[in-house]
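Internal tracking record. Fields below are filled automatically when a chain is submitted to the structure queue. Please do not edit lines marked as system-generated. If the sequence contains nonstandard residues, flag them in the REMARKS field before resubmitting.
Queue: standard
Priority: normal
Entity type: single polypeptide chain
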Amino acid sequence: MRIRVARRHRGAALAVAAMLVLSGCGDWGGDDTAFGASTVGALTVSGCRPQNPLIPSDTNEVCGGNILDQVTAKLVRYDPETGNPSNDLAQSIDTTDSKVYTIKLKPGIKFQDGTQVTAHNFVDAWNFAAYAPNAQADASFFEPIAGYGDVSAKTPTTDKMSGLKVLDDYTFTATMQDTYSIFPLVVGYEAFAPLPDSFFRDKGAAFGVHPIGAGPFKFVSGNPDAGYVLAADPNYDRAGKPHISEVVYKVYTSSLAAYNDLISNRLDMLDVLPTAALLGSAYQQDIPGRSFSRVVGQFQSVDFPPAKVDPSYNNVKLRQALSMAIDRQSIIDAVFGGTKQIATGWVSPVVNGYKAGACGQWCVFNPTQAKALYQEAGGHQGPITISYNTGEGADHGPWITAVCNSIHKVLGVECDPTPVATFKSFRDQIVSHKMHGLFRTGWQMDYPSIEDFLTPIYRTGASSNDNDYSNPAFDAKLKEAGEQSSVAAANAAYEQAEALLANDMPSLPMWSSKLVGGFSDRVANASLTVFGTYNLAAVTIK
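SYSTEM-GENERATED OUTPUT FOLLOWS
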């Protein structure tokens, strides 16, 4: 799981190209050679600054995740088009009871440092991720494994989960605490990537700035303020082998700068066009024949702060009133040129288990009922604030402003868009529980399941539970779902869990994402995966 940092920017429609040409080059300074962009076969894409060191189990946002997705390999890989899993490092993942899994690895696969990928590289990595003193952001993903409680306690009694056993170099078992039918689907997420022996020499200090995996690309160099370079691994011969020799992630300070570079063919791919380019389909004039779009497993919402940080929103009627005061469709049309789908619940429509209407009446624009609920709630003392990240190509200002305008128009309360300078500082304030007022959140799925839109975000104590939401009934329903022996039965229970969120409104669902991106003249087969990431296995250089 990770938090999506969408790259959008306020701007005028229909005059985008002319304005951008005048605005000059991107903010990267034009020194492409510093990151190898001039290499034959190299692809340049828009990237962003990771929040944490590049450690798989400590990366739960898209900036770092995009890089690690390419460098690391996991037991399974997801089809770029459908998201369906297939074995990658795993030769087989067998179980007779959805509780004890025997995992056999394909022999002979090596990390990019030349060492073999063996069973202990998985077991050691997973134990490291779950061990509380290591404070990994994705630790809770390992909770289904037996013994997690012993390693994750404030004072752990051991640093090894009892549910993990190495049988031989290429075989290990993973025993769950309870039945967990979606385990083979989950283990394609990067938090479950194996770690080479070198990682443990310094607990990932060196790895965090130069990660080593068994994926299709090798890490070459990186600078959080400028960009990252990955080179195709010539020894990689499994599914997803790239046709390009190198990919360069360029970090911009504005989406318009990135768009400018795309128009002038100084950038090869941009996954999210700025809002100014979407209005009136201006991009079709700016980059004719050089755009692509698809619905992806991403979701946008506005979260409430934890009650202990800002108790002024700890009122369900107030939260429901705010939700009903937002005219989502008008905002989608006005800001995104209609390229979004209204959210009627908390789950993306691209995954199995999606059920329309989970949010019920609370996600339907209704000014009259919103006013009534607001009065019943006693209103809100002081202005409403909605924080969002800026810089690094982020483009959230226009839609956050539109949301505030809608709330003010319906409820009469002052609503202030509140920008935060960088994605890192924005996330740091949230995870350290210093963020007051509402704040925008986005979610890019880690694996194609309804579960991934619920457990990591809303379960008590989960890794990305930004507002400290806690509902024992919701947690119990998640547990019930996890204990089902079939994915269909599990999904039915997850749907029931999602329905409970409407009673509490821990966040305001906004829309599911249909991304519109673009590519340069020198690129063919440009596309996005169902996750909304660059499909680097398909793209070619002409």
